[in-house]
Amino acid sequence: MTTLLHLDSSARRASVSREVGDAFADAWRRANPSGRHVHRDLAAEPVPFIGEAWTELCDYVLANQITDIGRYKEAVRTPAQAEAWAVLEPLLDELVAADVVLIATPMYNFSVPASLKAWIDQVTFPKMSLAGRRFVIASARGGSYVPGAPREPYDHQERFLRDFIAGHFGVEDVAAVAAELVNSRLDPALAGRRAAHEKSYADALAAARELGGRY
Ligand SMILES: Cc1cc2nc3c(=O)[nH]c(=O)nc-3n(C[C@H](O)[C@H](O)[C@H](O)COP(=O)(O)O)c2cc1C
């Protein structure tokens, strides 16, 4: 059975990144009626930051060259490490079981929310491979970061996720859809960009639906 892991990370319930992610997930469910849709809301139910015991598990995996995710549990040797493992194991199991991972994320301070980064820190081990999976990034930003925009070099949201997914998960199959200029809904200084936002928003929803329908 094919499985979609769908992560949300906006602190808002009425959120553009949630809408774009939902557009993908709705189309994916229609295209995969017997598929499994697993939804995790990292903002509503945050995962804890990693602690020292987590780093001990990570160091053991690295020092012992354990690259098989199924063997990570061998690193658990103390009660504190067992506690850290109990937090990360269900998150990791959920990720490994997914065929498609949808990351819906706002841009916060040019990057991703701490809620999403906390999840990334929990599930990422040295030299792990998630090859064979597909990732989709559904994002929303207050400004514009398209090629040629003055703020293009400040995009540490989509660029970070692409680099991270390729560099740490070994996955090159990454699609990204972004709704830009969302702040034009609120900021009088961006009122002149409202039409550009409406187009970016409509295009992002359409692209997310199109992708979801063929994944
Ligand atoms: C804490 C916070 C930080 C933000 N930082 C940025 C930023 O650095 N660049 C930007 O373009 N927009 C920024 N924004 C605007 C959001 O990216 C925008 O509101 C977007 O729609 C958020 O996604 P959401 O609608 O899914 O919550 C920020 C918003 C918040 C709440």
Automatic annotation (TrEMBL):
Its cofactor is FMN. FMN binds at S10, S15, V16, S17, M107, Y108, N109, F110. The keyword Flavoprotein applies. Binds 1 FMN per subunit. Gene3D superfamilies: 3.40.50.360. SUPFAM superfamilies: Flavoproteins (SSF52218). It catalyses: 2 a quinone + NADH + H(+) = 2 a 1,4-benzosemiquinone + NAD(+); N,N-dimethyl-1,4-phenylenediamine + anthranilate + 2 NAD(+) = 2-(4-dimethylaminophenyl)diazenylbenzoate + 2 NADH + 2 H(+). Belongs to the azoreductase type 1 family. This is FMN dependent NADH:quinone oxidoreductase.
